[in-house]
Amino acid sequence: MKLWDLQGRELASFPTHLAPVSAISFRPDGKAIATASRDGTAQVWSLQGRKVLTLKGHQGWVMYVTFSRDGKAIATASRDKTAKLWNLQGQELLTLRGHEDAVTGIGFSGDGQTIATSSTDRTVRLWNRQGDRLQVLQGHTDAVAALHLGPDNRLLASGGEDRSIRLWSLDGLMGAQASVSQPATGVMTWYDALGKEAIWGVSFSPDSKSIGTTGRYTLAKLWTSTGRELLTLQGHMDTVRSLQFSPDGKRILTASKDKTIKLWNLNGKLLRTLRGHRADVRSATFSPDGKTIASASWDTTAKLWNLDGQELVTLRGHQAGLRSIQFSPDGQAIATTSEDGTAKLWDRQGKALATLRGHQGGVLALSFSPDGQVIATTSADKTIKLWNRQGKELKTLKGHAAEVNAASFSPNGQILATACEAAYIYLWSRDGELLQVLGGHPAGIRSLSFSPDGQTLASSDASGNVVLWRLDLQSNLDALLEQGCKWVGDYLNNSTDVKQSDRHLCDSFVINP
Question: How far is CA 499 from the centre of its chain?
Fold first, then answer.
């Protein structure tokens, strides 16, 4: 080991481990140094090179070592898939188990009460000082090689072999038992314990306190916003395709591959079963006043029903199975999408008002803007199209690398979120400008839903994950870029790895400390 002053002068040199040293860390008071080694140990040294302590207990290389911020504890991370805490006398305090591969890094929060670990299993995990796992941060697509917890307990940075650096917002997430994922925006993820089943649909209740999900099984579920399961709706005989809350939040509507629609109360009691479709019912929704139900089926028809289950009208005109259905915000029009490559607008009497033509593949989903003047459609052709109420195409949005499965306007109408089979969410302005890309899902995203206050976006994927993204929808593209420049400003200015020409990338932004 060599010690140097800031002018580059060598102060001391002394031998340490008999195998390569993988990490080194100063004690916060600067009076001792800890080293980690491939010999399976960590050691503590005085500044004069005297060995103070040897920490033995790992069954593989020690990949990283660090002191707690108060200097009273030492943490080690090992290739044996564990991390350990030690006191300054070399006594092992606890072992953190749960990673599925080598633990590459470890760090303490500013208050010392939370520990973060990174691993080649592609996750970052949060623990309390008693060794209980608090969170699993998922999003990296390859080994996580490094991490750093901010001193204010609010941010964690991780770097991975997927060539990405991710910033995770830890606000409110250090105490809940849930699994969390966040690339640059606050995110919470949970996983349905029924198994690796696709979650086809996700929907917020009107008060934002509950979230409904449907998947590749015969159940629908209600959850809290922290991922605690509240209720299971059981009664369908095949895959449940969609779930919607009534506008007053007192009833729930589910549509199923078993050709039926079911109406439930919030206690999970089945109120009514609507029968009449001859094939898979892909989507069902309430009218804005909550008095009418609309359903879309693979039998090429859509139907309107009253709350007693009486069929009011059948909408006919599509040439292939229907994918989705939605009322306009004023309740006067109904929009449907179909595998025939079109979307259609209808009145409440079943008359076709307009046919939206232009996609080169099946139209998979749609969303009305809150003012009802713009309709967004998504397609297997990897595009999104914006239309007016007369069926005129306004714009085509391109960028997704796979079929676009879902779309949702924010409640204020200023943001359009779209999601695709390539596992990315795109946020667009109402004018079609790309604002942000959210990554982190491990599989194709099937559904999107904004919370009524517009601050949270829920997404679900084909691996059974639900992700809650906390969004700052007041930010425009310049604001997002300015935020990014704040994060990387020091690196651009000071790193020897940055080209001189790149040091000025953020010069156009005035960065306020």
Answer: 33
- CATH (domain of 333): 2.120.10.30
Please state, rounded to an integer, the average pLDDT across all residues of the chain: 86
Residue 70: closest CA among 21, 28, 10, 130 = 28
Mean of pLDDT values over 276-281: 97
- 110-116 contact pairs (CB < 8 A, 24+): 110/69, 110/149, 110/150, 110/151, 110/152, 110/153, 111/153, 112/68, 112/69, 112/70, 112/73, 113/174, 114/149, 114/153, 114/174, 115/75, 115/83, 115/85, 116/147, 116/149, 116/156
What pLDDT is attached to residue 488?
A: 54
Query: Is residue 232 domain-resident?
Result: no
* 97-147 pLDDT tens trace: 989 999 999 999 888 888 999 999 988 998 888 888 877 887 788 899 888
311 shares a domain with 293: yes
Q: What's the total number of domains in the chain?
A: 4
Concatenating the DSSP letter of every residue in 157-198 gives EEEETTS-EEEEE-TT-SSSSSBB--SSSEEEEEE-TT-S--
Residues 253-268: pLDDT tens digits?
999 999 999 999 999 9
User: Rounded to an integer, what distance in angstroms lies between the CA atom of residue 365 and that of residue 348?
Assistant: 20
Place of tokens 């939040």: 249
Identify the pLDDT of residue 185. 40
pLDDT in tens, 414-446: 999 999 998 889 999 988 888 887 876 778 899
In whole angstroms, what is the distance from residue 43 CA to residue 483 CA?
A: 40
Name the pTM for this structure. 0.61
Together in a domain, 176 and 35: yes
Structural domain containing residue 494: 479-513
485 and 406 co-located in one domain:
no
Per the structure block, which two tokens stand in for 506? 């953020």
Residues 335, 467, single domain; the answer is no
Q: Which amino acid is at 47?
A: L
Cα(236)–Cα(452) distance, rounded to whole angstroms? Answer: 28
- Give the whole-angstrom CA distance, residue 178 versus residue 336: 36
Residue 104 is part of a domain; what is its CATH number?
2.130.10.10
48 and 121 co-located in one domain: yes
Asked whether 26 and 32 are in contact (CB, 8 A), the reply is: yes
Structure tokens of 442? 């491990």
Cα–Cα distance, 46 to 31 (Å, whole number): 7
CB atoms closer than 10 angstroms to residue 113: 15
Query: In Å, what is the CA distance from 148 to each residue of 79, 144, 235, 294, 503?
Result: 19, 12, 48, 50, 23
